[in-house]
Write a structure and sequence with these properties.
Elements lengths: L2 E3 L5 E3 H20 L15 E2 L6 E2 L15 H19 L3 H22 L4 H36 L5 H25 L1
Antiparallel strand pairs: 1-2, 3-4
Length: 188
Amino acid sequence: MNQYTSFFGKCKSAASILQKRRARNAEWEDNLRHPERFLHQKVNRDGMKRCACCGRLFKPTRFHEDDQLYCKDDECKRQRDNYRARKAYKERVSTREGKIEHYQKSKAKRTMVEEAIGIEHSEDKYARKRNAVRRKLEEMKEKLDSMLYALLGMVVSFGLPTADLVVEKIRDFIKMGEELFLKSIENG
């Protein structure tokens, strides 16, 4: 049976160690999702608070005992900054006007950076791509229209009197074309 010796020399099974680690990790992940729970946390009698990220005790900096939630560890600082950014973003884009304003600011910043670096505006790039696709679609449509008119002229030249018969003849041609296409795939 797999057993590990703890730091103090007591034997514990691997399952109990993993179970405790998973519980601690789940608690930390929950703290990361909801750091606002730690806002009302008071400083204990030793002058220590519990970090909202890692859960360790830390001594808050002077004059920030009430509002400091994270310790000075680098990972905790990253989580703090990430939380602040998410919170600020949610507040900014909570209304339609906020979303529009955020989009305009980010667009202005993006274009300013692109101009400074010397990159063409992404909008111009996307517009050219869109226009190229539109041109290709128009060309394909023109070719298909000319093929359709040729087919209609050919069917009408057979001397069919009504439009329903012309449509029926076109459907027959389509079926014959599909059959020929499938045969060419099987042979080729």
